[in-house]
Amino acid sequence: MSRYPFRATEQKWQRIWEERRCFESVTDPSRPKYYVLEMFPYPSGRIHMGHVRNYTLGDVVARLKRRTGYNVLHPMGWDAFGLPAENAALEKGVHPADWTWSNIAEMRAQIKSMGCSLDWKREIATCDPSYYRHEQAMFLDMLERGLVYRKEGWVNWDPVEQTVLANEQVIDGRGWRSGAPVERRKLAQWFFRITAYAEELLAALDRLDRWPEKVRLMQKNWIGRSEGARVRFPLLGRTDHLEVFTTRPDTLWGASFVAIAPDHPLTRELLERDPQLAAFVEDCLRIAASEEALEKAEKRGYDTGLRARHPLADYGAPSDLPIYVANFVLMDYGTGAIFGCPAHDQRDLEFARRYGLPVRPVVLPPGADPTSFTIGEEAFTGDGTVFHSAFLDGLPVAEAKKRIIAFLEEHGLGRGEVTYRLRDWGVSRQRYWGCPIPVIHCESCGIVPVPRDQLPVTLPYDVDFSKPGNPLDRHPTWKYVDCPRCGRPARRETDTFDTFVESSWYFARYCSPDVTDAPFRRRDVDYWLPVDQYIGGVEHAVLHLLYARFFTRAMRDCGYLDLDEPFLGLFTQGMVTHLTFRDERGRWLQPDEVRRDEHGRWVTLDGRPAIPGRVEKMSKSKKNVVDPQRIIEAYGADTARLFMLSDSPPERDLEWTEAGIDGAFRYINRLWRLVEERLPLLPPVGTPPGEPGNEAEAALKRLVHRSIRRVTEAFERFHFNKAVALVREFTNGIEAFEPATAPGRALLREALETLVALIEPMVPHLAEELWQKLGHQRLLAESPWPVADPAWTREETVRLAVQVNGKRRAEIEVTPDASEDEMREIALADPAVQRALAGREPKRVIVVPGRIVNVVV
RNA sequence: GCGGGCGUGGCGGAACCGGUAGACGCACGGGACUUAAAAUCCCGGGGCCGCGAGCCAUGCGGGUUCGAUCCCCGCCGCCCGCACCA
Q1: Which chain A residues in 108-147 sit with Cβ < 7 A of strand B?
Q2: A531 in Cβ contact with A507 (< 8 Å)
Q3: CA of A809 and C1' of B49: distance in angstroms?
Q4: Residues 611-650 of chain A: which lie with beta carbon within 7 Å of strand B?
């Protein structure tokens, strides 16, 4: 029996595609375009299964779109700056640049072996000065336009990575990469003014209708818009005042204290003269830094002895309030100062109970009695009617908010304000392997941008990694330059960009990777952007995707392009998972270190028990990784691709199993044999399909056209697992068909050609090979997608269920255009229906054409 | 705690807009081919029992409907995001 020679075949077609430059694209405004993009990889050295899944999904879309007439852009590149390169330098003594470039070479070969329809002419690497020089120029433009600024502030310091992290990069109080508890430090940092776009980024989410709802919601929550008011509380015995932000100005009459953050300017002023307060603050900051404690941390405060005058003291509110420093008040949200209304805020209630402060309800729940309503253990945060609040009395909460804000504004006591949870994006990193920030620090001129004609500021090659910290900062010469403005000795900025900056605009660079004097040509980006389909992991739902959306707008406002949103369609794929194993001592075992014994139990290779654990994301730490390169060598790229698409919907996790990959491999070989074996029966290529002469032939013809319709639809809806199922069903149908006549043989050719044409996006090498065997000269990758003939997508008869009182009792066969009366008659005549009726008279008969007949008695 | 998602055979999953639950595959059982095995091909299959013209089945309990995996209410379980955001 012949076997599909996948190795030779895959190499053959990859060579032909490359020679004929099939997948290279050019800007051509006369044609409709389609930009398919997978999130570019970090060049770690080897591809993993997540990459294989990602690029398979993208390639299916790219190939389908190309064959349905689009001018497709499908590029690939490298997110090449980042910490692992420096770790390699530290551990193995390799230079980060050398390490990165050799990894890129290796991974490029691995990705190429997958046979994706990529335009390699457009390959970019972000660590190449030809890429990051444009980023430096854009940074200077943004600096001029006020979209970039430098500020001294508290930062999240990762003690392991010895660098600063953005808020988004801190997860549960730990560094997103190192997992080490983050410390708070004070440093001067560069920031992108992403908050200037908070409202726009939020509002535009509604229009991203081809994004997963989940991702839009995550971004919405991340931006965290809240409407409220900023209220002035004058300090008694002083001339200044506190600014307080609140979303509940309607509860001002219920205020019983004011609280400020431990790092509020007023706190810092007070602690100079109050050692007890200083100790309290130190305590708070330590707990804040040592995360977890927060979880259980009680509401604690320190009475400063200062008091604030209530702005509404003249209108029946408490005349003045104590000012506490409280551990639960955050300096970087709102104004760092709050007023506490214990009756209507759970935190304030806990605080009030602890310190014996009054609890005065001012919102009455619906149906409650104003004379007897009191607050117990739970604050009342719902809607109700305001009372004990002068002119707000009787109003519902929403109304009261509007009224009090108008009042505060009229009397100069405060104003309505919208606050966002989103903070500006800190991009300074104390690292070597990143894009240098193109500014110079001069003692007399301050911060001076590097003149444009001196860009790019490139990284020095001769760096020393033997000591911790930033090698750029220690470099003997690199940072010492003359000030471009005054000519006196000055210092380069030694921080580099967060690597999320590079990935914020790479999709635009792909449009014109060759242009040197600008990041891209207008003509190219105007044509290709936005990306029509972006595909990657959900882990980037907030960070990368939000930064890229911001950066696109910043580029727009600097006149680089005319675009708001970079990614029109977004698809987030699930993870690739695998069963985990441990030995008796609890040590993780690799999948190739276990087998099943004769009783089907998991054992190690030398027969000791292996304990299967949970199915988890493939990770080195749990040792449950399967190397894609090994799979491609053993089974071929098409098998790996097919398995990636089979069974699991792409948005869900996919469990890698040996059995699954074997199943895909068997099917690949079955397809090969099917065409091989039927080939001698077929009329020559180009023979017109001809009309079916008997029922079997008609059935095949219908199967062909129904398959085209259903598979196409499945692809378009990203139901790739269904597409695989439908194609297998189609294969089963062809296998069962025995051609007996000349038209039958012509039909068999039509069926096989259609099958091969439909599987091409998934298993392109096999499909090209079979297409050629069937006698075609033209490449399948460049051939049009099959079109279903509507005359053959209809069934000639339909089977419908007949229910009696909603229970299925019989099945009838009718023509699709049968009238309701006919269907009713046939159904009622059915013996099984008669039996179920047991002589009872039908009260009602519901007939849904093509669906069901339901007899109600 | 808040927000979101998901629960369907032994397993991954189908089921369009409320209309025959279990497509397709994996694993399994039986058979064919073979000296034998592998490979391949064919057949079978949700559960129960008295094996039928039966009953029960989409996490659990209710509801709406002629009819519910699908809609509504209340539970239970798992997963993800945020986490003192005033």
Answers
A1: none
A2: yes
A3: 20
A4: 646-649
To the nearest whole number, what is the mean pLDDT of chain A? 91
Segments of A281-319 assigned E as strands: 301-309
What is the end-to-end Cα distance of chain A in Å, rounded? Answer: 60
Distance CA A268, CA A277 (A): 9
Contacts of A851 (CB under 8 A, 6+ apart): A800
d(CA A345, CA A332) in angstroms, rounded, equals 20
A666, A748 Cβ separation under 8 angstroms: no
d(CA A690, CA A750) in angstroms, rounded, equals 9
Which two three-digit tokens encode residue A384?
């109700």
pLDDT for residue A608 is more than 70 = yes
Could you please report the per-residue DSSP string of A439-494?
Answer: EEEETTTEEEEPPGGG---PPPS----SSSS-HHHH-SSTTEEE-TTT-SEEEE--
Token pair belonging to A148: 């970039």
Q: Which one, of A781, A532, A779, lies nearest residue A33 by Cα? A: A532
Pick out the nucleotide with least CA–C1' distance to A800: B20
Residue A290 CB closer than 7 angstroms to strand B? no
- The pLDDT confidence band at residue A715, using thresholds 50, 70 and 90, is very high
Beta bridge partners, A189, equal: A151
Residue nearest B68 (alpha carbon to C1'): A806
* Residue A853, burial from CB neighbour count under 10 angstroms (0-12, 13-18, 19+): buried
Buried b vs exposed e over A25-40: b needs ≥16 C-beta within 10 Å?
bebeeeeebbbbbbbb
Q: How many residues does chain A have?
A: 857
Q: How far apart are CA A460 and CA A412, in angstroms?
A: 57
Helix A49-67 × helix A695-716 angle, to 10°: 120
Neighbouring C-beta atoms of residue A69, cutoff 10 Å: 12
Helix (H, G, I), strand (E, B), or coil: what is residue A154? Answer: strand
Which pTM was predicted? Answer: 0.93
The ipTM estimated for the assembled molecules is: 0.94
Q: Residue A756: enclosing H or E segment and its boundaries?
A: helix A742-759
Using a 10 angstrom Cβ sphere, with 0-12 exposed, 13-18 middle and 19 or more buried, the burial of residue A423 is: middle
User: Residue A597 pLDDT > 90, yes or no?
Assistant: no
> Which residues 220 to 239 of A reach strand B, CB within 7 A?
221-222, 224, 226, 228
**Distance from C-alpha of A425 to C-alpha of A431, rounded to nearest angstrom:** 17
Two tokens, residue A486: 């005054």
Q: Taking a C-beta distance cutoff of 8 angstroms, is the pair A137, A519 a contact?
A: yes
A63-104 confidence digits (pLDDT tens): 999 999 999 999 999 999 998 898 888 888 999 999 999 999
- 3-state SS assignment for residue A230: strand
> Coil, helix or strand for A611?
strand
Determine phi and psi for A396, rounding to 5 degrees. -70, 160
